[in-house]
Amino acid sequence: MSMEFAIARLPRIEFGSGVRHRLPRIAADFGRRVLLVTGSRSLLQGPFGAELEAGFAAAGLDLIGHRISGEPSPEAIDAAVQRYRDRGISVVVAIGGGSALDAGKAIAGLLLPGNPVLDHLEGVGPERPYLGPAVPLIAVPTTAGTGSEATKNAVLSRDGADGFKKSFRDERLVAQYAVVDPDFLATCPPTVIAGNGMDALTQLLESYLSLRANPFCDALALDGLARARDSLLPLYRDAGNADARAGMAYASLLSGITLAQVGLGSVHGLASPLGAFFPVPHGVVCGTLVAAATAVNIRALREREPRHPALARYARMGRLLTGQALRGDAEAADALVALLDDWTRLLDLPTLDRFGVTPGDHPRVVASSRGSSMKTNPIVLQDTEIAAILEARQGGAP
């Protein structure tokens, strides 16, 4: 592997239990007027809401709240930009899951330019270059999964038969600060922990296997995988486990850093059309497909490229995640697939039929799966192999 690589800009990271209390002071450094972007079930209604509002008030900040319902659409972003662009916003603070952070990222990027987001959306509009400038953004994740606090892309969706899930992507969209407080995970229900946690695990796995992998990101991905190994199931069983919360918040952060630098793979290639065509949460797609995709990738590599270095990487992850000193690489890679299958079952991740996907939909999903994520998969999969991933998790009556 070449030792030449480049690392794109990252946010300043504030990580740890209680760092949320620093948020008002950090925001005040950018100015007085704050646009607070949250999900539809606003964080401010939960147990952390009162202390955050009191902190913003004590810092003398003028707070303007905006809620995003579900995954952000281009239309929702454009409406928010037009609503707030003349309000003198000093800083955008996005608090919530990946959807809230992506929405905050896109809004912050367009408040000053004021143009429609479709101008810049990959694979949809004219793909005009983004010139900025962006309003400063502070990203505060309340789930452990997407790693959006560390990335340069805002994922936007349009639902329906002609739907899409595409990125507005530019290094100027990277948050100035990522404020990562594991305490927020105490309010996450098990289903959210399962889907988001498997999303983070998948991002770490796929970035370690990426055709653009580099030693810097490899070290982060392996450390993140070890944290997820030790934290995901304990957190799923008990959100009150402080060590597990910290471990998964850290793993998720690392997954965002690595995916932003080196890209992803086949699971995320499929997640894009599945999330656009069907009402399936992104984390659930990743969690339900990762074991099957891993098995298909390994089989394709063994059949067509048996000397490919990715096979040794699969083996290394197998040894790391199982904690077993397996001697043969083939045995270790197979152990990885078995472990991912076990986690899929233990986390009760649903099959695709639960979201209205039928076998008749598979060709359309496969045809729409070859976006940017699939381009860094360790091997180019054939359509039949991509379909096999879907078939393995289709579920329902035969």
Give keywords.
398 residues, alpha/beta, six-stranded parallel beta sheet, two-stranded antiparallel ribbon, 13 helices, 8 strands, 47% helix, 11% strand, globular
Please characterize this protein's 3D structure.
The protein is α/β, with parallel strands linked by helices. Helix content is about 45%, strand content about 10%. It has 13 helices and 8 strands. The protein has helices spanning about 25-30, 50-60, 75-85, 100-110, 190-210, 215-235, 240-260, 265-275, 280-305, 310-320, 330-345, 360-365, 385-390; strands spanning about 10-15, 35-40, 60-70, 90-95, 135-140, 155-160, 165-170, 175-180. The strands form 2 sheets. The chain has a 6-stranded parallel beta sheet. Strands 6-7 form a two-stranded antiparallel ribbon. β6 and β7 (about 165-170) form a beta hairpin. The mean pLDDT is about 95.
A few lines on this structure:
With 398 residues, the chain is α/β, with parallel strands linked by helices. It is 47% helix and 11% strand.
